[in-house]
């Protein structure tokens, strides 16, 4: 059998991810061998004379800005995730904290802390409170000497849900794990929520301003747009192909005056590496129709009662087992420990759903292959001074997707250039006790990908860029100036993987990855205008030596440059690692006046 890069990718990653689903047992053996031998290196390579402490894994990101107050901490769950395959999520009763001395909190932080040792795959997991998703994440892959990692997420935007004293709620954690003699890793997990009281005399008190658009004010009500709790699965919908549509019925209070849908997305199995999937005609011509295809473009579409309200062109999160698992130890890939969620402004459409009746949100994914996990939270701001608000959708333009693919191939060598463009516009007014407010929302997307197969498919290079622009404009009755909330994101991916063959069963895979996540934001604030600029780029290169289908050795090296600048403060981190070791780590909080600033 000719070990092309594609077959390798297919076997190593595709079947590897099938291990999450034991129904595909026929292909397990080979890959278990491949992976277990690879992972067992960590046993042989450590010095048995010196007992080792667990390795700490982490994602490079800006630390959460905390008020100078003592948090009131609530330990919610301790659980050992071992044999959780085919089982329901783990449930705990959640009561909003009553033991805290304060009742007003300016920051709420979710802390996930876990340890694991042995061997295990990367597992996707989710945390929901009464069906509202709080965190989507991926576990770290352990090593024999043990690992520890934690994820801290600012969950202040779920304030009204977390502090709902009216009812006791259910927290659900779904992490599908399988433990056996080879895959020994059990995840020991602690979840704590830290509530930080307001610090008197700080500017934060201004956030009590009741008007949703003016500040970082949090929704009064958050409705789950997810599956119901009685499942042996996560609460996410499973989207299995390009025609599959997930629908959720909901009703909103009739006094809402703003609505934002927060969408969580992750891609798995045949679409875990969607950005590297070639077109079907290439696979067909080369008799590789079992390999994941449908080309490298994906788009998540969100509908409300059959109208397209927004789209998500997702960031290419690489999970901790992706490309070369050694790349993500100890610095994990951008977004892998805290997957980004995406906000869609629903306010222009509010007038169509204020009738107290049932409405439907729908999710589908263009070109999808099995499987995408998608759900959402509907954030609603309610008018305390009225029982009914009213509104009308004024304008809705859904420009059809313009996609172009230029394919050129000869056997397994080929070049594929894919580009896509789309924009969606909506505007509408809502009349509440704040007056008649007109909101418009524009999304503008550009996608470009070049994919190159050479050496008869043994070498693949992908260079992809997504530009994702969201613009919200709010016309308040009292103000001449529109409020602005804009973000412009650039997601870039460069992936180069080369299989250097010695013979059919012995080869080396060399891979290079560059992942970029840049975000520019501009927002009207009480104090004026705030802008922020994030440039986050991670470069990795790795090597795996495969002998007789077993990965016998390997190494991963990464460097990451994180630069955040805003008027309120800056954060820079420049860090590098190789073979589990941090080589350098420079952190700076002060904004460098001399450095080139985008403002
Ligand atoms: C939650 O509380 C209810 C009622 O108090 C109880 O019946 C149930 O067993 C509790 N569930 C969990 C997971 O502790
Ligand atoms: C929530 O649960 C606690 C403890 O089980 C109970 O004392 C309290 O009355 C419950 N609150 C509501 C609103 O059901
Ligand atoms: C797509 O997935 C849905 C849901 O699993 C299934 O009912 C449908 O038959 C699939 N369509 C195709 C074309 O495979
Ligand atoms: C694909 O399979 C068909 C039939 O089995 C065969 O005729 C053809 O030569 C194969 N093509 C390639 C590129 O291997
Ligand atoms: C609200 O403003 C819009 C746009 O200016 C206008 O068309 C609409 O009639 C107004 N609605 C009410 C109830 O005043
Ligand atoms: C594919 O490209 C390689 C060089 O990358 C070349 O050696 C080989 O002959 C090409 N194969 C075909 C079918 O053109
Ligand atoms: C990827 O493509 C962009 C243009 O879209 C180009 O500027 C960049 O240099 C390419 N990167 C690599 C590594 O080839
Ligand atoms: C990876 O990057 C290194 C250094 O930038 C380069 O020498 C090497 O050719 C690259 N390898 C691949 C497979 O692109
Ligand atoms: C990685 O580090 C281990 C010791 O921790 C060492 O035995 C091994 O040779 C190193 N690998 C490379 C490629 O440097």
Automatic annotation (TrEMBL):
User: Which residue range or ranges hold the Peptide N-acetyl-beta-D-glucosaminyl asparaginase amidase A N-terminal domain?
Assistant: 69-393
UniProt KW Nucleotide-binding keyword: no
Q: Which InterPro entries match?
A: PNGase_A (IPR021102), PNGaseA_N (IPR056948)
Q: Name one Pfam family in it.
A: PNGase_A_C
**Signal peptide position in this chain?**
1-25
Q: Which UniProt keywords apply?
A: Signal
Enumerate the PANTHER family for this protein: PEPTIDE-N4-(N-ACETYL-BETA-GLUCOSAMINYL)ASPARAGINE AMIDASE A PROTEIN (PTHR31104)
Protein known as: Peptide N-acetyl-beta-D-glucosaminyl asparaginase amidase A N-terminal domain-containing protein
> From which source organism is this entry?
Vicia faba
